[in-house]
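Q: Got a minute? One more chain.
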Amino acid sequence: MPIQTSAVGMQTEDYPSEITVRQCHAFAAALGETSDVYFDDARPDGIIAVPSMTVTLEWPPSRDIRTMPGFGATSAELLRGVHAAQDSHFFKLIRPGDRLTSKGRLIAIERITPGTRVIIRFDVADECGDAVVTSFSTVIYRGVETKGEDTVFETSPPWPNEVSPQSWNETSIPISRQMPHVYSECADLWNPIHTERRVALEAGLPDIILHGTCTWALAAKEVVANYLNGDPTRLARFVGRFTGMVIPGDAIKIRHGLVEGGAQVEVIGFDGSSAMSRGHAVFR
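A: Always. Here it is, folded:
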């Protein structure tokens, strides 16, 4: 059945989270990130979470908002949703012991040639109600129709201008066959198209695919390591458009280079195709 554009404006309840050392360690480990700032909880100042761990907090509202009465998609159609873009704005660090809330709101549903584009805004806040992270996530439902006029409740922020660096650096990252399974459990972010080949094939995919958020997080990791001296506090925003599938079992190449105020990033799949385009980091 079609996705209902009248669902725009729906929002979830607040989902509470108390951040733990174990949670921070697990997410970092899934990315192969063992820097002291994320991994050595015996440090005088303790550890902080990898900034991209925000996707763990965003998953419950992301999962539930699309099954709320009024959205309209069937269970089979929900499996045809592909994460197309992630745009996260980081305001505060996430640390073990933090008590946070996360919520999601549908801000746009529009017809596009491949099917339906859905944009969800996620807000992660602290106990005082101050913003910790705000993200805008785009999902495309391939071959799924809509009912109603295209509706935009809130316009997502303009995408950063694409600027070519004077020089590109390149990092090769192996993506093992089991990486989606490890990431699913460590990030507590499960969708069977990433781990169960039968489900992926039934959804029209060629194989299980790596989570877009994992590709995005690996790219952000390289930016922080190469241009911010490993200091995640200087990362203000990170965006990426997922333009191709990463099938586990080979290596991806992360290309990155400095531009004014930040870095430009792209991810190339093992077959030479684009896996993430127009990636951009904004620095403090």
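A: Residues 110 and 149 are 8 Å apart (CA to CA).
Q: Perfect, thanks.
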